[in-house]
Amino acid sequence: MNYFIGKNQDNHAPISNGNVLAWLQQYDICCRPVDKISQLFFKNFDMSSSLLENPGSYVLVKDHNEKIWYDPYGIVQVRLGQIGEIISLNSTQYMNGYGIYEVVSHKGNTVVRTKTWAPQNRNSFIRSIEVQTLRNNPSKASIYPVVHLKNIVQRIRNTFISRISENQWLATTVSPSAEGITGNIAKAVTGGQVTIFEHSLQPTPLVFKIPAQTIPGPEYSKPVFQVFAAGASKEEALQELEKTLDQIRQSETHTLQSWQAWYNETIKIDKLPPELEYFWRVSNTITKMSLQKDGTPIIIGFKPYQGNVWIRDSLWIASTLALAGHLDDAVKALYATLSYLIERPDGNYYYAYNVVTRLPNEHAFENDTTGLILYGIWQVWSLVKDHTILLDLWPIINHSTRWILENRDSSGLIFPDAGIWETFGPHLGENFEHMTWSSAISAFGLIRAAEMAEAIYENDKANEFRQGANELIHAIYKHNVHKGVVTRSMETKLLDASVTLFFSEFPIFPKEWLEPTLKAIQQRLEDPFIGGIWRHESLTTEEGDLKPWTGPTFWLGEAFLVNNNVNQAWKYFNHNYKNSSFCGLMPELLYSRGRPRGFAMPSYSQSGVIRSLLLYTNLISRNQF
Question: Which fold has domain 52-241+250-261?
């Protein structure tokens, strides 16, 4: 089935231009259909930078030929039957797969289309609102944009200003200009007496009262533009608002054109069916949207992790950008990510940081960071082909390789840890293990570090790195492989989906391990009811059960591609596509009640689209199938 965004109030479709980020939501708590801006962020994309009060911003519409309002919350109860009429979501999409998000919904005969975008190089958002009738009959309609502000500190004619912190200000208005009314929403739209709460530090609902306009038969009404502008001061927010309003009529076209220009850098792959072409474009778009202005890739669209810089995820995003042809973005993302690194007491690097404080923010103890750093630097450098990257980052390369070489125990494997999965370890009743993932990614990192060392004539180092990698692979073979099946760790014969990456993305495991491992994973990690692949056998989600994840499902499909089994590969790829939302976003995983978690995860989810399609088309071009 396809989900809208999504049947979980913590799932959001993102809109961003690097300066500002919006969360767009189609289901509220209790799965109530809505079309709203859930939250705006400026300037760091973490929860502390949120600009709106719950429940965000949405629209009410009165079709003058109808008995009921377009009213997602049942606010306007002027006639019997009003509460029983719910919103129906018709379609959601990123227009042409690019950075403008469109929602079409209706209630009764009233159809509302919204488009939301962030103009390039502005600290602002625009939402256009248009109305049509389902039966295509002419009518008149009144549009009422609603926004819940944290406070209002000043009103300048029909512009309202909110102060969130010393360096966070929000200015909002509509175009064409219209009266703004604060206080009780139902009274504001029906003409009743309203108590004004302006100049207040209290959360304040604001309704803009747009004069009624004609709906011309089958056509949409003229658009009403709702504009939000942020700044580090009141003056900056007002300047952003003025500049955005100056270009309001051209802004949608200009934004689409700028996204098209960026997309033209994308590597060209063989002609895809229209549906996959859309997924390809959306996934590139979302990966770009995960970059803040300074290039830092972060998690977007998912409340619990909003604003975290995960070294693994950020490097995965940076390398995906490089693989897709966006080399400038990839270099910027690489440098920004590595600028966060702080050493742990044992000399490895912490793997997660808060984007504002830049301090570590971790859930478990993982030893894979150094190997992933080496991979990320190599992947970007190998495509950009600029030795300056190696010279700039050599201290990090050297430190990472030294940590790997010096942190193996008598088994020859990297010291025990949580592996790739942060929800594993003593804090959850599990002992750390000699994880295959940690030793294997370390081995792959050493192999790539050897290539980088040779490029700058550090040949002795290169030899040392290759020897260390061979020793790690041998230790994995000795302790973590049983009858050709690669297991999770030395301590157990349980399986871990991450090992499939060492046949595809990080190809260091011998071919003879591939078939037995694929067979075992299909038997033991594939969900018996809904398909897809679990992360590993004993790992549970926050809701207490094993469930398939989008990333591991893509990984197994890629391993089948490497094994020349195209049909099996597409079985898993299509499982992911089937569970996408209508606008093309994929969940991180599915919970037990069929609810998706973590839409717009640009590392495990949307990057999986890009990487699997690249691998598929590359293998086709080499006639390997």
Answer: Beta-galactosidase; Chain A, domain 5 (2.70.98)
